[in-house]
Design a protein that fits this description.
149 residues, alpha+beta, Ribosomal protein L11, N-terminal domain, Arc Repressor Mutant, subunit A, 2 domains, two-stranded antiparallel ribbon, 15% strand, elongated
């Protein structure tokens, strides 16, 4: 996990990659280039060494956790400490759809509606309301068809 656009040759990358004899500066530069859209978020990054002799490698950038995407989308730093007592923020259904589309490939959901329900489940634990409604209530309204996805 590296912070988007801010990878450095220090820990955790340096000690992990140093023994491989790869060009650490070039790898860090590529990681920062590929993760610049996720600034301020922890991003999973995988480095696959294809051929150690020729120093050929491939960098795979994962998608940040759903909670990080939601927090960035609505512009908050942290979720509510006591979600039943406080509201950390409010998201629109469009913002939730956007996050669901971003995460769709890594989710078990087979439709956008299922992905949206999953993202709203994360909103429950963060203390985030959906269009001013409790997230569980929003999930019920989606299941009943009152909120169209």
């Amino acid at each position: 996990m590296v912070e988007g656009g801010k990878a450095s040759t220090g820990p955790p990358l340096g000690p992990a990659l140093g023994p491989l004899g790869l060009n650490l500066g070039q790898i860090v530069k590529e990681i920062n280039e590929k993760t610049k859209d996720f600034q301020g978020m922890q991003v999973p990054v995988t480095l696959v060494v294809i051929d150690a002799a020729t120093k050929k490698y491939e960098i795979k950038v994962g998608i940040p956790p759903t909670s990080a995407l939601i927090k960035k989308e609505i512009g908050i730093e942290t979720g509510a400490a006591k979600r039943k007592e406080a509201v950390a923020g409010n998201a629109t259904i469009e913002q939730i759809k956007k996050v669901a589309r971003m995460k769709m490939d890594s989710m078990m959901a087979n439709s956008l509606t299922a992905a949206v329900l999953e993202v709203i489940g994360t909103c429950v634990s963060l203390g985030i309301t959906i269009d001013g409604k409790d997230p569980k209530e929003a999930q019920m309204l989606i299941k009943k068809g009152e909120i169209k996805i």
